[in-house]
Design a protein that fits this description.
Strand order of the largest sheet: 3-2-1-4-5-6-7-8
CATH superfamily of the largest domain: NAD(P)-binding Rossmann-like Domain
CATH topology of the largest domain: Rossmann fold
Distance between the termini: 47 Å
Structural class: alpha/beta
Number of strands: 13
CATH architecture of the largest domain: 3-Layer(aba) Sandwich
CATH class of the largest domain: Alpha Beta
Helix content: 25-40%
Order of helices and strands: HEHEHHEEHEHEEHEHHHHEHEHEEE
Largest sheet: 8 strands, mixed
Length: about 450
């Protein structure tokens, strides 16, 4: 491991030293609050390395799945769920009275935007207020949710201290380490993705860094929690801005009769100074469409405006409308109207080969198509039925159509929105007269409209 100045000293507090001994002996019990896309892989990673783990979630159905060894996140897999369910080192509960049983608490709760596109910190705040009265001396609390710089210092620490009577840096230790999960990516897992860590004070930095070093291949300590919080925002802002650039170029190049995918593929042959990004129907997932606006919001506190971020947001949020316009044009070329057309949206997940539909651009595209009078259906092998969600109640319970010739022939238009590797997109042009492809899923077919 690399030597870092933060870790060149011993803990000043005997309480921190005692926790450090538990961490090094792997007797520290790891509590994970929030058993979703981030929390489940963390539980698996710590359990696999020999730590006792305890999961907390307010959703009773997740606890039921956990105890039964059944999977509610497809890419996580049933085999790992069964291992956790059978282990005497692993439990899950809805009971926050059991917070004192954990030596470490990793907070993995949502940080969405509200209706005004400002940070909705209610999940984080409510979680900290729920655990606060149960905190005891010698615990380590780490926030993993993506957030604005200053959250840990300005919100987490004061609430913990107020409700527990403990003192951060002396009897309680607080840190921040942003999650870097990439659901469905077979090349990386939690243990192989470098982990950035920042603590509130030297002792918190030491114990948090040593905790992750037990289970993560590479840990990257930074000077404080604000820096760690800023790291995650930079990562996602970088992606959002570059995706916006290539989305804008897609529109421009289409007007010029140039294939954006051919341009990007040729440009990426340059061995330096270029990183390929590809266009799409809009941003999806719980990070890139949301996280940049956390910095935009926080910057206003300092009288600053993040013009680059806001412009990228405008470009990316306009893409679903661009896709719908291209759908209208494609049907119009065949003498058909969008009103009254049967439209199939191919792909509901925000990215390939996962069942994660958070912030999926398919939703606004389906909404817009419906508002123009189309009859809208969808196909996604990872999402057989649309579950209830806060933002898209109207689509709750809609079932995926069958991927059969007799079903597909009933549609006037198919819009490819997710490029699942197991879906034979190339068969669509022989079954449906009009195809709009936003993912280059059927390259080279002149019958297909690009969007």
């Amino acid at each position: 491991m690399d030597v870092n100045p933060i870790l060149s000293q011993q803990c000043e507090s005997e309480v921190a030293e005692a926790l450090l001994r538990k961490i090094h002996s792997k007797t520290a019990r790891i509590g994970v609050v929030g058993l979703g896309y981030v929390g489940l892989p963390l539980i698996w990673t710590f359990h696999r390395e020999g730590f006792p783990v305890l999961g907390y979630d307010i959703d009773r159905s997740k606890i039921d799945h956990f105890e039964a060894g059944t999977s509610y996140i497809k890419h996580f897999g049933i085999s790992r769920m069964q291992v956790l369910a059978a282990s005497d080192r692993c439990e899950a509960t809805t009971d926050f009275d059991r917070v004192p049983e954990a030596d470490v608490l990793l907070l993995c709760v949502p940080t969405p935007l509200d209706a005004h596109r400002e940070p909705d910190m209610s999940y984080v705040e409510n979680t900290v207020r729920a655990i606060g009265p149960h905190l005891r001396e010698g615990q380590l609390v780490i926030l993993e949710s993506t957030t604005y710089p200053g959250t840990t210092n300005e919100m987490i620490v004061p609430i913990c201290e107020q409700h527990s009577g403990l003192k951060s840096g002396e009897t309680l230790f607080v840190a921040y380490s942003p999650e870097r999960e990439d659901p469905g990516n077979p090349d990386f897992e939690t243990s192989t993705i470098p982990k950035v860590v920042g603590g509130e004070g030297a002792d918190a930095s030491i114990v948090a860094t040593e905790l992750y070093r037990q289970v993560i291949d590479k840990v990257v300590p930074v000077s404080n929690t604000k820096t760690a919080e800023a790291v995650k925002l930079l990562e996602n802002i970088f992606r959002a801005v570059n995706i916006a650039l290539v989305n804008e170029l897609k529109v421009v190049f289409h007007a010029m009769g140039i294939d954006i995918y051919e341009v990007v593929d040729a440009a990426k042959t340059k061995p330096f100074g270029f990183m390929p990004f590809y266009p799409g129907p809009g941003l999806g997932g719980h990070c890139i469409p949301i996280d940049p606006f956390y910095l935009t919001w926080k910057a206003r506190e300092f009288g600053l405006h993040t013009r680059f971020i806001e412009l990228a947001g405008e470009v990316n949020t306009a893409m679903p409308n661009y896709v719908v316009r291209r759908a209208m044009e494609a049907l119009n070329d065949q003498g058909k109207a969008l009103k009254g057309a049967n439209v199939l949206c191919v792909g509901l997940a925000y990215k390939a080969d996962v069942d994660d539909m958070r912030e999926s651009p398919t939703y606004p595209i389906m909404d817009a198509l419906k508002s123009f009078g189309a009859t809208v259906s969808y196909y996604d092998p990872y999402i057989p039925v649309i579950p209830r969600s806060r933002e898209h109640v109207a689509w709750t319970g809609l079932k995926s159509v069958e991927w059969k010739d007799e079903s597909l022939k009933n549609f006037d238009l198919a819009v490819i929105l997710t490029k699942h590797t197991g879906v034979d997109h190339a068969r669509l042009p022989s079954l449906i007269d009009c195809i709009v492809d936003t993912r280059n899923a059927i390259p080279g077919d002149l019958r297909v409209h690009r969007a």
